[in-house]
Target: non-specific serine/threonine protein kinase
Amino acid sequence: MLASLWKLLNSLWQALERVWESWTAPSLVVGNYQVRVGKKIAEGGFSWVFKATDQSTGRKYALKRIHCPDPEILRACKEEAAVHNAVQGDPHTMELLGMTIEKQTCYMLFPLYAHSLRDIVNRRTGVLDANSTKSTSSHNHPYGRSSTSMSSSSYKEPAPWPELRALQLFHGIMMGIKALHDAGYSHRDIKCENVLLDNEDEPVLMDFGSAGPLEAPIETRAKVRNMVEQASQHTTLPYRPPELLEGGLRPGDAPVDYRKVDVWSAGCTLFAMLYGASPFEGEFSRQSGRFRVTDCTPLSILKDELPRPPPQASSASWYSAATIQLIQDMLRPNRQERATVDQALDRLRHVITDLGGNWQTTVFRDFADDDGDEYDEEEAGGIVLIGRQRRV
Model:
């Protein structure tokens, strides 16, 4: 009863908020869209993201505003837009709806979606903090309460994911990466936070601000320093490969293949999907067998072996040997030995097929309320992210 009343009051408040915004919010033309700018929903560095409403249809969008005090930032905005345009129409990359530049400000308009892959990972894995036995997730474990001690009970905790579902979702991520590569770009910052979910919970790659060419030559020490510095700014450390760490490259080495960089980051992302975090930012608890976040340092990335659950833990048998082997193939420290995108996709498809699935079809619904209705943005407390508009 109280829940229904709260839902009704929340809906009324949202309606009043929309009326107020329509009266007071500034209007802006971005590409072919006339939108009314709403409340700020995110910010960082030189950019801010606002909720925006189409004045003709009432459809909600995300409006990214970037302050461009110098030509270099403006050039970066144009390059980011060029990446979006190069993969326009691909179902697993984010759609840029429009872009407008006014004086020292760039506006980019995107569709609006409520969830990222990180939301699902947090909900399903409940990864542990190193200083606590409590889950970092605010959600209950979807398969019931987890065992806190391996020796206290014979209970075997089920995997956070049905393996096939996780791999089918990951297949969509890999297809988005391949689309970027086929268009001549590498992403360079693949991670759970940069994967959104569309209306069908299909994965969509976002944030092309770090994207660049597929390869880069290593000719001088200055070139190496610049490459490592760029990586420190654009590639999140727990997802960064060894070659982009200090001392990982020398002048005269083979050119850096950023496609292999994306493969490494994608391998870290798959591990994070299955266990909660990148393999290089934590360890498995000896007590519970679950993955816990500690810290990520360059030294942890240079380790020869990936962390493994204790043999007696439930988590040691959550996923097939073929899936673990796929992750290992994507996380080869030697970049020449690391799988390519095509090789990883081929092996992934074999694993999906062996598990009885179809990699060409994904039936995936993860966010639903207790009544079985679709999880919607208003009930999520206004948590919003940028995403691709679903084509029908």
Remarks:
- Residues 163-355 form a domain with the Transferase(Phosphotransferase); domain 1 fold (CATH 1.10.510.10).
- Residues 130-154, 368-392 have pLDDT under 50 and may be disordered.
- The radius of gyration is 22 Å.
- The longest helix spans residues 2-24.
